[in-house]
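User: Hi! I'm working on a homework problem where we have to compare a predicted structure to a textbook description. Could you give me the structure for the chain below?
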Amino acid sequence: MIEKVASSIALSQGRHDWQNHVASDRAAVLALSEPSVEMLNAALPDCPDWGYLPDEWSAMIAYVANEQLGEHQ
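Assistant: Happy to help. Predicted structure tokens:
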């Protein structure tokens, strides 16, 4: 996933050298580690309790941020 993010960002800037920017791309992914209220409401509209969703979201983002290049599940 981190390769996808890095490649997408590089391509959006007209570049193909995504490998040189993985650290900043990880930082961009980590910026999403805490879901906003709006994100949670989009996932579970009209739900007064999001349960474990915020923790699950944070765990998924942490996994992506810590992924090693070339690692495929």
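For your comparison, note the following. Residues 53-66 form the longest helix (14 residues). The CA atoms of residues 29 and 48 lie 27 Å apart. Good luck with the assignment!
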